[in-house]
Amino acid sequence: MLQPSRPPEWQESAADHLWMPYCQMKTAPSPLPVESTQGVRIRLSDGRELIDAMASWWCACHGYNHPHIVDALVQQAQRMPHVMMGGLQHQPAADLARRLADLLPGDLSHVFLCDSGSVAVEVAMKMAMQFHRQTEQPRRKTFIAFDRAYHGDTTGAMSLCDPVRSMHAEFSGGLLEQIHLPIPECDASRSALRDTLQRHGSTIAGVFIEPTVQGAGGMRFHDPDVLTFLRSQCDQHGVLMIADELATGFGRTGVMFGVDSADVTPDIICLGKSLTGGAIGLAATVATDRVFGAFWSDDSQNAFMHGPTFMGNPLACAAACASLELFEREPRLQQAKAIEDQLSTWLKPAESIPRVVDVRCKGGIGVIQVDRLDHLDRLRSRFVEEGIWIRPFGDVIYTTPALNIASEDLKTIADAMVRVTEQWSTW
Ligand SMILES: *Cc1c(COP(=O)(O)O)cnc(C)c1O
């Protein structure tokens, strides 16, 4: 492999002006300058190539620059990159809404588009509160969310994240107050949820859950019967069940949507990330007939009052339609299951490494969980030396590759994960 060389000239001004995410700008190592992407490869300015183990925060599900998506973007860019959605509509948005309605379980068929996952969560919160106001339950304004949850970085979404372990802990006191409970996967946590609903049920608007996999909270898996239990509790207490499928949607866990693994229809579902195949930002909040019905009225006051400037951006909608065509044409779900099988075998040797707490795989997700992630910068740069782009965080070293990654590339990633974790454990 090529050795790192001098950074490109543009990176000098980046250090002065570009404020990076989740980053102590003073002490962090310089970000890697990227020249281009192709398939599962990230090409750096000095010519080095990295195999991408995380599909850009698990959203580039078909790999980068998929020609079908690029074509859709180019054609749409020539016709109409953007037009406002207030009072205007266009075919890419209409096609996307119909496709999503066909694909989603039950009668989830009323699609509200927006520009990012966090905003899709905000939209779901507003939708739920207004739903209750318009069905004569105006006291229902609080939400239940689970320990280890991650629902986004905007302030409403932050109030739903784990209040202690999330990266938002230092804002506590400045956020909406919600109820945080353990995931109801055992008798004790199920009683806690039941008790809370019995005691505060009439003030609760909805329960947010990341179905089957909690992502940024540490790649934690739970059994699909949690969803069945939650559905029945929500029904019993008139509370909306809101599925945040930003991370789990579009095949990542081996089924199209996390809720499919329990055959449950939530009242509202939030989608994003892989929605456009990771090519451009877009998110959606989709409601059932019953939720939508509460807004259907002769009274203009009952309209849903939200409308991001770039709502339903035609470029993003065209990319999303192209991505959904790829899901129809190509065996993405089988590929996700094949990743699970292969990673389960290839990551298994990590179980015997000291300081490794757990090794687990589900669909296109492979996780090595450790006792405590120290030497993080050194660990990340070791992976780059191995030719792998991977970004361990929290207590996990994980991969969420493109679902159509070639076996050889996946093997390279898995072997590097085991080898580097082993080295790290002795530092
Ligand atoms: C990524 C993510 C979000 C936030 O989406 P953004 O597009 O980054 O705002 C919310 N919830 C979950 C589960 C996510 O994985």
From TrEMBL:
CDD domains: OAT_like. Its EC number is 2.6.1.62. Keywords: Aminotransferase, Biotin biosynthesis, Cytoplasm, Pyridoxal phosphate, S-adenosyl-L-methionine, Transferase. InterPro entries: Aminotrans_3, BioA, PyrdxlP-dep_Trfase, PyrdxlP-dep_Trfase_major, PyrdxlP-dep_Trfase_small. The record marks Y22 as: Participates in the substrate recognition with KAPA and in a stacking interaction with the adenine ring of SAM. Catalyzes the transfer of the alpha-amino group from S-adenosyl-L-methionine (SAM) to 7-keto-8-aminopelargonic acid (KAPA) to form 7,8-diaminopelargonic acid (DAPA). It is the only aminotransferase known to utilize SAM as an amino donor. This is Adenosylmethionine-8-amino-7-oxononanoate aminotransferase.
